[in-house]
Amino acid sequence: MSKAIYARLTGSGFSTFVLCFAFAMNLFLSSLLFLGVLSSFIFLIFIFHNRRPNSLNLPPGKKGWPVLGEAVEFVSLGRKGNPEKFIDDRKKKYSSELFKTSLAGENMVVFCGASANKFLFSNENKLVVSWWPPTIEKITISSKNTTNTIGETKQMRRYLPEFLKPEALQRYVEVMDCMARYQLEAEWIPNTQVKVLPLSKKYTFAVACKLFMNVEDSEQVTRFAHPFTSVMAGLLSVPINFPGTAFNRGIRAANRIREELLPIIRQRRSLLSEKKEMATGDLLSHMLLATDEDGKFMSEMEIADKILGLLLASHDTTSTVITFVIYYLADHPRVYAQVLEEQMEIRKSKGPEKMLNWDDIQKMKYSRNVVNEVLRLAPPSQGAFKEVISDFTFAGFTIPKGWKVHWSVYSTHKDPKYFLNPEKFDPSRFEGSGPLPFTFVPFGGGPRMCPGSEFARLEILIFIHNLVTKFKWKKIIPDEKVIFDPAPIPVNDLPIRLASL
Ligand code: HEM
């Protein structure tokens, strides 16, 4: 633009300068005013958020930043591989039994120690009920399903015992054994090096697909498995449902899994109603036949939500334990030797081809202790949440109705008061009467305790039997770092070198 035209448009040079100066000052002052108002607002929220109502003797602790609370520190300590520090620091600073914080946007009290666990687990449905962050509810329950997670689990308790009772578990031994053998032959034997974490996930997912809904086709299993990473990432994400966010990806991935599930459920329902198929004893047939108090069957979408929830509850948890059994056995040759001896004895008593049975599982006493010690040191689930349904007092402090409570495995599993030399990997802790009650809680406790604990142990022991009787192994990265996100993950997926026995 020429100078003449510019001058005509803007007036003389001086008036242009005055105008620009006035405009800049205006902008500067308005920004100052805006920042002033904004910071006072944040300050007021901060004061309000952390204020301590005089009338209630709330537990000690601080709630951190508005909205975020102390979530950033909670998450970042896990990512640094030290999730128990969040609890330990506050136990030292405030109280060894409980402290106040804010997580998932909620007023929260963290209960610590064996007596706090006992109090919480025995007051389920009296003072507290199970609660999950809204992200989990939104992803695991479809918009077409009108129930919430509390309703969901109540219904679940109606058909799940049938699927998980000891007689049913006995029937799964051979299926799990068969699938472990198949997995090892297909994915482990042909290689001298493998990454343990993805392969363990493959095994537990295949077992779940087979035993939950009789799906064996590997392409179909892969179609289910593929969206799971996004679902898992969405579960504990920031609850902003906007294209591109982890939460949004989680919701869409869960919908894709439901779309895969619905035709399977429909087909099985019609085969069952036409009596062309007998109930197979898998989870899906228990669900299709289960009725509520009024004799009403579940809708297809309700069943799809429940299978999705169970795939989530069972798959990453169990595969994490398998991964860490392999991780710790590589580091502890004496423990490995004892596991090998126990498993070889079982194998020799049967010959190479014969499948495992329920009696064999009962003989795996030492290996079971190893699995327990892994569950203590690398628990796949950090704990769970409850919602307070009426004001109550614990350890002299009041916890108001509506507040959330978090119990954490880290408040006991690594406390030297309960476990001598807590960092030491020592399966002998589980010999005899084992740890004190309410100190070893990888599956929770009370009425909401994980109903799949024995299913998981079975699946893990069967895989370990097949692995140790075929291979020995070495870690490729001896000091591979472990992060907690929130489950423990070896950052390189635990690459190992394999050699046949
Ligand atoms: C090593 C593997 C597993 C671990 C560490 C684990 C851990 C947990 C924990 C800590 C809870 C929360 C308990 C509470 O709210 O107090 C839970 C709940 C649950 N788990 Fe597991 N779990 C595992 C495997 C499984 C398996 C294999 C299944 C199913 C076959 C399963 C099904 C469930 C269900 C349905 C719930 C909800 C129970 C309710 O709210 O009433 N879990 N699990």
UniProtKB/TrEMBL annotation:
PROSITE patterns, A to Z: CYTOCHROME_P450
Residue ranges crossing the lipid bilayer per the database entry: 31-48
Cofactor: heme
SUPFAM superfamilies xref list: Cytochrome P450 (SSF48264)
GO cellular component: membrane
Topology class, membrane: Single-pass membrane protein
Protein origin, superkingdom: Eukaryota
InterPro entries in alphabetical order: Cyt_P450, Cyt_P450_CS, Cyt_P450_E_grp-I, Cyt_P450_sf
Residues at which heme binds: C450
Keyword check for Zinc: no
Keywords noted in UniProt: Heme, Iron, Membrane, Metal-binding, Monooxygenase, Oxidoreductase, Transmembrane, Transmembrane helix
Main localisation: membrane
Transmembrane is among the record's keywords: yes
GO terms assigned for molecular function: metal ion binding; monooxygenase activity
Places the protein is found: Membrane
Family listed: Belongs to the cytochrome P450 family.
Protein name: Cytochrome P450
Annotated organism of origin: Ilex paraguariensis
